[in-house]
Amino acid sequence: MESPFRSEEAAFRFLLITIGAFALIVLASWISTALGFLTFLGLSAAAVAVYLRQRGPAPERTHVAPLETEGGRRVLVVANETVAGEELLSTISTLALSQQTHFRVVCPALNSRLRTFTSDEDPAREAAQQRLDDTLARLASVGIDAHGEVGDGDPLVAVDDAVRTFDPNEIVISTHPLGKSNWLERGVVESIRARYDVPVTHVVVDLGRGDSAASYLPATDET
Amino acid sequence: MTAHAEPLHGQHDEHHGPPPANQSSRVDPRTLGMLLFIGSEIMLFGSFFAAYFFVRVVNPSAPDEWPPAPYEFPVFVAGVNTCILVTSSFTMHWALQSIKRGERKAFLAGMVLTFLMGLAFLCTQVIEYLNVGFNTGDGAFASVFFGLTGLHGAHVAVGLSLLLMVIIRGFRGHYSPEHHHGVELPGIYWHFVDVMWIVVYSTVYLI
User: Fold this and answer.
1) How many domains does chain A divide into?
2) Residue A62 belongs to some domain of the structure
3) Is residue A174 within 8 Å of residue A89, measured between CB atoms?
4) Residue ranges of the domains in chain B?
5) Residue-level pLDDT, tens digit, chain B, 207 residues
């Protein structure tokens, strides 16, 4: 969604639209008050529909400059309910074995739209924290030193926050399979690939079929 | 909520002072500030419109005609004033496009024209108030009329102050095709003020 006042140009365009809309409303009102009211309602509904369907401009590509760490690379892991999936843990283990790696696990505090609008996010954050704690404990039990945080409910914002503070060499994102994944439906993985110039690995975990059925899409340099 | 604080190696040796702010929003902070301000302004205008529609529509003793006889609104003068204000948005837009292209003279001309038209609007509104033939004590309709148009007039005055600052800075050589945020934000505000006037003029004077 884009604000009609996000820039001077957009505000100017909005002014012209307002002039046209109110000219119609006034004309309809002169014919009949009810018609004027209906015109107002119709135009308002159309404006809201257009506003909600609008997609914002494509974000600029962000250059991620990985920090010079004392040995090892930095991998950012982003996952929702699939954070405890065997396939994701297996991917993390594989990365950890190949060379010294610092992991940061981000669990977005997923919330319903209604709860987000009403700022009722405590249960979502608690659930995400629980998932995160379990995952970190599980990783620690196999000798992988990982840190983590609960992120914003919007996965793109959560990744953005983490990238700014962690500066990863690679991003691993875990989702449900196509058809079950809201993130895939929203194009989150593609957006992350388009947004950051680091390799993005997409791990698909099908919790419903058991972790053994999980499929792993190998690391890709598509960015 | 970070489970474990992790120092960022490589930054310790050279970094002094607080860490750079982590900006989650992709909207420029200054633009975001203006958006939030405009959001609050919309709510303020909304409350005045609520009072207006209550007086005119919901109120059981609402007058049958608007404005109630024998009063009349100066629709034509306000219409001319509307044209002036809308035109000032065009010159504002022209000014910003000009500075983006590096055309300083056109930018300054656009800004001065915008300011003069805004000033003309405000002066005309003051003259309108002096000659309208009723005052705030002449009924609820008069109160909401002066309340709504006066609230808008106050916003025009604020907008003029911003435009004046842009003009002064412009004549002192500020702004360039790369740095024109100081023009962009007053421009957004000015267009918002114009949008609100279109709504005020349509609902109060015409409908």
Assistant:
1) 2
2) no
3) no
4) 29-57+76-206
5) 333 444 444 444 455 666 555 555 566 778 888 889 999 999 999 999 999 988 888 877 777 777 887 888 889 999 999 999 999 999 999 999 999 999 999 999 999 999 999 999 999 999 999 998 888 888 888 899 999 999 999 999 999 999 999 999 999 999 999 889 899 999 999 999 999 999 999 999 988
Q: Is the ipTM of this complex over 0.85?
A: no
Range of the domain at A176: 73-216
- The reported pTM is 0.66
Same domain, yes or no, for A20 and A77?
no
Query: Is residue A40's pLDDT more than 70?
Result: yes
Which one of A5, A134, A169 makes the best mutation probe of the B interface by having the most chain B beta carbons within 10 Å?
Answer: A5
A118 and A49 in one domain?
Answer: no
List residues of B whose CB lies inside 8 A of any A CB. 1-4, 6, 8-11, 22-24, 26-27, 31, 34-35, 38, 86, 89, 92-93, 96, 183-184, 187-188, 191-192, 194-195, 198-199, 202, 206-207
Q: Is the Cβ–Cβ distance between A151 and A129 less than 8 Å? A: no
A31 and A121 both lie in a single domain: no
Asked if residue A58 belongs to a domain, the reply is: no
CATH number of the domain encompassing residue A165: 3.40.50.620
pLDDT in tens, A75-109: 999 988 887 788 888 888 888 888 888 899 999 99
Task: For domain B29-57+76-206, say whether CATH 1.20.120.80 is its number.
Answer: yes
